[in-house]
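TOPIC: backbone geometry
CONTENTS: sequence, C-alpha cells:
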Amino acid sequence: MKIPIVSIVGRQNVGKSTLFNAILKKKIAITYDFPGVTRDIIRYPVEDEEGKILYNICDTPGLDIENIDDLSASVIELSFQQLLESHVIIFLMDKRDIRDYDFKLISLFQKDKRFVNKNVLHCVNKSDNPEEDFDLEFFYKQGIGEVLPISALGRRNLKLLNEKILFFIRDFPARDIEKPEIKIAIVGKPNSGKSSLLNAISGVNRSAVSELAGTTRDSVNSVIKHENRLIELIDTAGLRKQGQNSDDPIEFYSFSRAMKTIEKCDIVIHIFDATKGLGEYDKKIFSIIREKGKLSLFAVNKWDLIKEKHSNTFAEYKEKMISRMYSVVDIPAISISATEKQRTSKLLDMCVDLYEKSHVKVSTHELSTKLRDWIQNNGIASFGKKRPKIFYVTQVSSVPFKLIIFVNHEDLFKPNVVSFLKKQIQEEYELLGVPIVLEIRERKQVET
C-alpha cells in the first residue's frame, strides 16, 4: 500500500514552509519573509514514535503568481499535479491577510470535481492568540465546514492538526522505513539541467524546470528503484560564484544546503551543459567534490544539441575536457540529454557500478607486495645511495580509497612517484571515479 501524501498549499508567503518545518520539527525547507522562495515540491516522511512512516508531508510553491512566465507556469503545473496526487490537502491562509486568491482556492476546493472528494483541512495561520478565535466567523461564511486556527511559528494547535491528518489517513497502516542504499546528488552550475535530470530519472516532475537560471533553491529528493536497489536522487541548487559569500540570504542558504547534500551523499553527478563546455566555475565545483572525498562522474547534458556528431565526437569532447582540467582524466563521463531522456538509465547504471567498485577492501599483504613491485620494476629514480623503499601498506578507508604507506624516507616519494602509484592503483582495482589518497609516513630503521 502507498504511503499517503499530505500537501501544504496556499498563496505565497502565508507560512507554508514554516508549517512544513514545524510538522517535521526540523528545518528542511528554506524559509524567508519574501514571496516565491519555494519553487519545488519538497517531500519528507513523518514518523511515529517507533520510527515508522505515517505519511509524506509536502511543501509546495505559492500559487498566486500574477505575471505568468515559463518558470511560473512550470511551478503552477507542478503544484496542481501534486494536489491531484495528495490524500490530504492542508489549505493554509494568513489570518491577518486574506486576498482574492484565497477565495479562488476556496472556490476551487468546493466546486472543482477533481477536488470535491479530497480531504481538505482549511487552516488559518498566524492565529497566535486563542482569544481571537471567535473572529473565524468570516471564514465560515465562505462555506467552509471547519476552520482550524494554528500558528506554525508558535506551534499552536499542531498536535490537533496532526490528529486530523491521521484521522483522514486512518486506512493507511504505518510503514517501515526503507532506507535508500545509494544516495546520489546532482550538482552543477545554474541552468545545466539538474532538475530536468531528476525529473527524467524519477519519472515524476518534482522540480520546476525553466531556462531561467537559479530555479531550484532547496535540495529536492526523489526515491526510485533501479535494478532492485533503492536509490535516492537529490537535485541541488545551482552552484554559482557568489554562493557562500552572497549578500542574498536565499542564495546563501541554497548554497549551504547544496554543500550539506554533497557531504551526505554517496555519489555526485557533476552535470554541465555540453554546448557551453567545462567552465572555470565547473573546476571549482569539481574541487569541492574532490575535497569532500566523494565518488563522482560527469554527465555532459544537452548532447542532443551538439550538431554533426560522429562515432568519436564524445571521445574528442572528453579530450578537450582533460586539456582544460587534467584531473578529470580519472572521472567516468557520459553524454546525456535529460529532456530527451537519452542515456539517463545508463547514467544510473554507471552510478551503481561505481558504488559497487568503491567498496573494495585489499589486504595489507597484497597492497605491500604490489606497491613494492611497482616501485622496483618501473625505474623509480634513486637519489645518491638512497633508494625509495616501501615497508608495508595498509588501507584505512574505501571512499576515498586511502592507503597509509610506511617508507624509509618520505623525501624519496616525490609528487610524481605518488601520482604514478595512484595511477597503478586505479588501474589495478578499477577505481575510475573513486578518489585515491596516499599518505606517506616515514618509518625509521637501523641501517646495517
